[in-house]
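Comment thread on ticket #2218

A.B. wrote:
> Attaching the input chain for the structure job we discussed in standup.
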Amino acid sequence: MLRRDGSSLFGPDHRWNNYYRAAFAYRLSEEPWWPLGFFDEFKLRASVGTAGGRPGFADQYETYLVSYLSATRSTLGNRKLRPSFTREVEIGADMLAFGRVALELTYAQQVSKDQIVQMPQPAATGYKNRWENAGVIEGYSVEAALRADLYRGRDLQWSMSVVADRSRNQITEWNRPCFISGLTRHCQGYRRGDIYGYRFIRDVSELPAIHVGSADQFQVNDDGFLIPVGVGNSWRDGLAKGLWGTTVTIDGVEYSWGLPITLKTQAMDADSLVYIGSMAPDVKLGIGSTITWKGLTLYGLVDWQVGGLVHNATRQRLYQSLRAADVDQSGKSDERKKPIDYYLRLGYTGTTAVEHFIEPGGFIKLREVSAKYTLPQPTLARLGLSRLGAERVSIALIGRNLLTFTDYTGFDPEVGSIFYRSDNFNYPNFRTFTSSIEVVF
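C.D. wrote:
> Ran it. Output below, let me know if you need it in another format.
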């Protein structure tokens, strides 16, 4: 297949772009020399294809942020934008054995060029950002799908299916200055989906070298953070000794007493941006089962995501506005009570991730349960539906997103995309129930 696309969203020098796709398959089990008779199907396949991503409508124009008082410059337009270009090569095998066990294996490799990235701009332009073509990203995906007919009788059939996939990528070329946008570092050798942010110290081994001889003046509090307490004090003494709101000087460095400490650069002149983890799951699984007994069909689907982190930006912003449940000190003993400055420190900044709000995003979700009953022909005749020309009548009830099991503290860990999972006041997935009546004439 050959395709030629034109769009006014592309720059004037790149109005038209060519794309292609080709595929090949070889059914070995159809050959007379094929020795494995228990395979009803054994097919090898390969394909290659290209695709492009279009710039947004406003990307070629200057944009402004307008308030009732003024208009400020926002994004510098780029009239030379090209569409991003991705080439994918896929190889795989499809197998069917004993007439009831099917297996599909797929490996896909992608190379994406001219990514459309919002790049920071020099202050001299007066604009904060501009959409530009930048970098090359290479990645791969591995997928496997297994389906088996576990039982096949005259009235009863039972089948199950398992689908699993895993994806990874890396920026292999970056012809621009490196920068961090949102959660991800844009730079050669780094991966999309990795989280970079600030981290609060949790152990004396992470203290700056200047404090090597005064580690006893720091303690780990009940939240697990290392805090400065000074000589002879404990983290429990905040209210008892009136230490909240005071400062303590350790090795010539002044700290706010009892407040968590961010990891610093070696020169101790700035907070250190560090790698926290990956938003990409280790593996995603889907497990489905179908049972049919006479006219009744029951179906269930469970989605299971293993690994992958989520930035709970909603919780972080609630800390900044002092509306998080943790800020409520009622019911706590005096030694565990903390002032609002403590939680403001943890909230840090609304634009940069903090490790305290990076949470496990794995989950097990009962994605779908359905029951469908097809009325037998005698029943159609008794109800007079056959005389109206009805050949089949089915009644179904479907429930989706029924249950979620997760360690994530927000509403729903299934937020964003696979490589950008940030929960910033996202509305959770609906739990829905659907009923239907299907009549076939």
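A.B. wrote:
> Thanks. Noting for the ticket: The mean pLDDT is 92.
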